[in-house]
Amino acid sequence: MTVEMMKALGNKQAVEFTIDGGSQILIQAGRAPIVNGVEEKRMRVGCGSATVGIFAKQLFGKLDEVVVVDDHITGVLTEHQAGRCLDMRASGIRMRGRKSTPGRYFQVANPGTGWGGTDIADPLSIIESWDAEAAWPGLRLLMTSTTGEHASWYVLDEALNPVEQEMPAEVRRIVERIGENCEPSLSTVLFLGGAGGSLRAGVTENPVLLTRAIKDALVNVTCGGAPAYIWPGGGITVMADVMRMPDNSFGTVPTPAIVAPIEFSMKLDDYRALGGHMDYVRTLEDALRRGAWHNEGAPSALEWAQLSPANPWPLARPLCWAEAEQPWMPNARYCPTAAGISSMARWTSSSVPAVARRQWKWRMQRRGNASPAFLMNWCRSWPFCGVRCALFARCAAPSPGACGMHASRTKAVSSPRWQRLPARSRKSLLPVTQKAA
Question: Does this model's pTM top 0.70?
Answer without folding.
Answer: no
